Amino acid sequence: MNTTFQSLLAEDIRGYVESKRAIGRKFKNEEATLRLLDRFLSEYPVINRAGLTPMLIETFLLSRPRTRPRSFNHLLGVVRCFFAWAVTQGRLKDCPVQVRPRPSTSRRIPFLFKPKDIRRLLNKATQLPDNSRATHRGDVYSLIFRLMYCLGLRVGEIVRLCHMDVDRNRRLLVIRDTKFGKSRLVPFGPNLGDHIDTYLLNRVEWYGQWQPDDPLFSFSNDRRRPLRSETISRTFHGILPELKLDLKKGVDPPYLHCLRHSFALQTLLRWYRSGVDPGQRLFHLSTFMGHSDPSSTSWYLTITDELLTEASQRFERLVGAISKEVNL
Q1: What average pLDDT does the chain have?
Q2: In which domain, by residue range, is 317 found?
Q3: Are residues 154 and 239 in the same domain?
Q4: Residue 136 is part of a domain; what is its CATH number?
Q5: Whole-model pTM over 0.70
Q6: Residues 6+ apart with CB under 8 A from 262
Q7: Is residue 99 part of a domain?
Q8: Within this chain, do residues 199 and 138 fall inside the same structural domain, yes or no?
Q9: How many structural domains compose the chain?
Q10: Exposure of 165 by Cβ count < 10 A (0-12 exposed, 13-18 middle, 19+ buried)?
Q11: Which of 300, 314, 303 is nearest to 268 (CA)?
Q12: DSSP string for residues in 115-160
């Protein structure tokens, strides 16, 4: 991405972005947002910093098409954090951001795949036909979707996997360069391990011996170039109509990231039904999924009637046990 900025805040924005990357942040989306601000200030007749008024910043915020509160609040948050940093660094006297966040209504519920839906998805993925630019599509996509559902991986983590990231002896994947700039180890079980082993051996037959930095998922037309997230998403959405999924009112249509949501839900349900307290294990799930904060994971506890029913039944059993002790 071009690193030049043009407005009177060019040096400030550059310094802010560099300071965030110095502590390991990727900061790509935030930089893109600050470029919008930089372009706005370049085109608007702002002569000096005294012209950075609350009204001007509000004009910029309203000039961006953000209909959803969450999207608008993200834009506002990036801009507010930049100006707050500029004030602490002595580059500005006061923060010109006075706009309040928009109230958000209830968070949309993502579509959650049931095990039977996943079996049909994987079956359809296995049957994907080859084309002139991509061979063995069935083997590639079936394993991609399996990893996303069974391990809760992000699609960006999938496309960055290389052969050296698969530790077959310890049965784990090394996930590098994640959303929050941290790496983590993700173990997998014997069943999933068999699928991974089969795929790795098949690739040797198709293309010859692996090199450590070979992307795990690529096609024969360019084995050194990993699949793009957009390509995987497009293939996923191409399969969806064949699944004839039951879409309920108030639930978002399924998208690729729903495989990760479904992993979290199924993990929590499994804990509830086996007598494990999810509250005690939430930190483990948060670490496994690469969340920056367990509060991001706790949201999953409230998004389906199935989980709430399990929680209610657990509470009733607890109350019953306490009542018996009291009566004794």
Answers
A1: 84
A2: 258-327
A3: yes
A4: 1.10.443.10
A5: no
A6: 112, 113, 114, 118, 149
A7: no
A8: yes
A9: 3
A10: buried
A11: 300
A12: HHHHHHHHHHHHTPPPBTTBSSHHHHHHHHHHHHHHH---HHHHHH
